[in-house]
């Protein structure tokens, strides 16, 4: 049974709850658009970001870098796609098929091109004239790290820490502004012994909360589980919850019951090592853990709690974001 630690989004069973939250926050999306912070594209969950919005994200990015500067992390920035082979090996599709996305491209000749253009002119679907490109959309920023680390051979004695940041995709169209289809995750990933992974997770539970506290945002740390797909997924989620493999830092938007997961603290155990044969110096399977920061969600929480006029935010918040 797959226990994918990265499906940190709502499952189909939660659709009614999502619609309720989306309805309560519909006015917030309208205000964000009217203030020029987000630009609608006509597709739910897909937005353009303004310079002011990006300044907030950049400030958060700098805070996260400062918080992890003692880790000696290897900095890697991947595109928001990975090979379909690595995507399949990760078993993300096993756990979250409804959230997955793959890339298809036109590979035909002139005849097929004419057929496609005619389909478009007639208002018909032309996707059958495309073929898989061998690429999948990245569901989390850390996914390319595991095959990369495996290709390098056994880990060094001290293990390894990676600093990764990428746009990620999860097919979950929603009018709720905190639930985007394309969004950014900044992560620190620890690969090493079981104790190294567990200590790393606890370290970031504490650091992550201090960081969000310094931004003047109400929050709580809560035990969580991923919304795995289907009947078997319910058992997987129960096991993940019972073994305390995931915690989330949640920030309320309006009603505290509508708190949104903005940081995620995960223990993977040897989940990824089983799939990519990640080994320690003694040839034992490595364990891993990560902390993930939902960049847009934290930015939206700041705008919700401190107002859409960034210049009027409390000075302590502005200093935390932009003074180094």
Give an overview of the whole structure.
The protein is α+β, with helices and mostly antiparallel strands. It has a single domain (12-82, 139-322), classed as BirA Bifunctional Protein, domain 2. The protein is globular, with a radius of gyration of 21 Å. The chain has helices at residues 15-24, 26-34, 51-67, 84-90, 92-95, 110-121, 145-151, 194-214, 230-242, 271-276, 295-306, 315-322; strands at 38-40, 47-49, 74-76, 81-83, 102-106, 130-137, 160-169, 182-192, 220-224, 246-253, 255-269, 287-294. It has a 7-stranded mixed sheet with strand order 3-7-8-12-11-10-9. Strands 4-6-5 form a 3-stranded antiparallel sheet. A two-stranded antiparallel ribbon has the order 1-2. Mean pLDDT is 89; it is low at 1-23. Strand 1 and strand 2 (47-49) form a beta hairpin. The protein contains 12 helices and 12 strands.
List the main descriptive attributes of the protein structure presented here.
BirA Bifunctional Protein, domain 2, disordered N terminus, three-stranded antiparallel β-sheet, alpha+beta, aa-tRNA-synth_II/BPL/LPL, 25% strand, Aminoacyl-transfer RNA synthetases class-II family profile domain-containing protein, 324 residues
Question: Would you summarize the structure shown here?
Answer:
The protein has 324 residues and is of the alpha+beta class. Helices cover 39% and strands 25% of the residues.
